[in-house]
Amino acid sequence: MFGSSAKTYAPEKMTLDSFMAAETGMSRTPGTCMTMGSASTMACLMEAMGIALPFNATTPAVDAGRRRIAHESGRLIVRMAREDTRLSTVLTQAAFDNALRVLAAIGGSTNAVLHLLAVAGRLGLRSS
Hints:
Blueprint: E1 8-9, E2 14-15, H1 16-24, H2 38-49, H3 65-82, H4 87-90, H5 93-106, H6 111-123
Antiparallel strand pairs: 1-2
Helix pairs in contact: 2-5, 5-6
């Protein structure tokens, strides 16, 4: 399909055919990112910060658990509204520090730092 070009991709010396074969098979699943990109990283960090339910980051879209998580998330947000629980009481400096530790541990996307800085800035937290 892509021809049999002998052109290589340094430094690995990969042929175009080999590169396209690897690229084609990289992300093959319905509704679940198979790489630790920005979305997967942020899902993990939101869980670590306490604003997403456990297993939210790792439950595939096609899994029956996704419906349970959605249902429980709805119940929780209603309870939080009734109790007047604000995000600023959950997203503390300690929560951001924990998110940075998790980010380092999972080898997540570097874009997460920008997202965390933006949210922390909106909450008036220090960005150290």
